[in-house]
Amino acid sequence: MAEHKSEPSPQLFHSQAKDALADKQLRQNFRGAMDYLRDKRKTAFSDLAEEKRIRDLSEAIRQRCLSKLPDLLEQLEANCIQNGMQVHWAQDAEEANIIIAKIAQKHHAKMIIKGKSMVSEEIELNHEMAELGIECLESDMGEYIVQLDGDKPSHIIMPAIHKNKQEVSDTFEHNLDDFTPTLDVDALIQTGRSRLRQKFHDAHVGLSGVNFAVAETGTLCLVENEGNGRMCTTVPNVHIAITGIEKVVEFLTDVPPLLSALTRSATGQAITTYFNMISSPRREGELDGPEEVHLVLLDNGRSQAYRDEEMRKTLQCIRCGACMNHCPVYTRIGGHAYGTVYPGPIGKIISPHLMGLEKTKDLVTASSLCGACGEVCPVRIPIPELLQRLRHESKNPPALGTEAIDGQQAAANTAEKLAMKSFAFAATHPTLYHTGTLAATKLKALIPRRLEPWTQCRTAPKPADKTLHQLLKSRKK
Fold first, then answer.
1. Averaged over 145-167, what is the pLDDT?
2. Could you give the CA distance from residue 311 to residue 454 in angstroms, rounded to a whole number?
3. Looking at residues 25-42, what average pLDDT do you find?
4. At 192, which CATH number?
5. pLDDT, tens digit, 9 for 90 and up, residues 71-100
6. Could you tell me whether strands 219-224 and 212-214 are parallel, antiparallel, or unpaired per DSSP bridges?
7. 41, 98, 335, 430: which has the highest count of C-beta atoms within 10 A?
8. How many domains are there within the chain?
9. Which of 303, 336, 352 is a domain's end point?
10. Positive/negative CA dihedral, 331, 336, 338, 343
């Protein structure tokens, strides 16, 4: 496989976004993909009254389940254990990787075959296991393509959405023996499938994510279209499922509305090709399934968001990606520019809790606050409002009665504060204010043409020949 490309970073967002905007092919790839996905969602929710009902119900379910999260997690653990699963708790990425490594080493595993899991990306599982001599092979087609290319996913639903079929063909040509270049999409998909088929049989351990974990029954629900999730959770002898603690739901009846909201918002489908429900290891008399099932429940900053009643709404997310598909920023620069596992609008409100505001302070300002993300969110997360809160948190100390976010005040700027205080003082002293505006009209020729970063995308301000007060006085005459 190709060597990993230089790692993007949220601290380099501005330069990465500039490079993405200059990449015409990338812009073209995203324009076509985003237009297609928006049209699919619009068709899937053609009945506005039905869309409202689904969103109302989904929001209510997520808020109810989150309000009971500590109790539901304990109930989930108890029922999973009763069903024969083994449950592990991980405070952070390091602890999660240690847990998974111990399970793999116990079974002398040299390879882990993976279904799609953004949480495994979050903890950098592939890299950490490679350090221990354990290969992690992606089996989701998009993930497989970007892994071959030494790349990272650029979307939480469609990891290789930034590539067109020519680029996929080039990736296969450079990394797979005996591959004949082709632009036939079916042939490209079949190539990937044929290379992966034997790997499911050879792997000792299969790993997957979890879309919904049902506390009532101890059931893990996995939504997919390719069948690779079903393969990696049934063929290997050991199945490890990893998920964030927020994915738990109270009842099995909570799942259908959320599934409908997820699939329609993500890919415009009424339902996906596969919906897997995993409740136990292989039982006596069953012909397939793993001998062991492990569930790893990851915190990694989620408790910080949970403790704040407003920020808790971040955890309502069901990872559909609709906010990205409708965001005017994401659709032009793609996911890699953000430098985070979760890009786009949802990433901008999740990443500060996972990584701290010091690393992500530029991301919370990378929004036009147009509100499109909030309008399409199937569980009605108020993303624009949360972004404004995070912008405030990045520059100011915590409000009375609230807990500081890791890295709070990281974007505080002494010069900016002084400038705003100076303006506030001038604006509340009429003589000083009028003198200043009059001076600006007289000295406007001295204002530079470029005022970075303002003039990167705006015209430099030009004071009028006369102030507003002067114009009003002249009208009275």
1. 93
2. 30
3. 93
4. 3.40.50.10420
5. 999 999 999 999 999 999 999 999 999 999
6. antiparallel
7. 335
8. 2
9. 303
10. positive
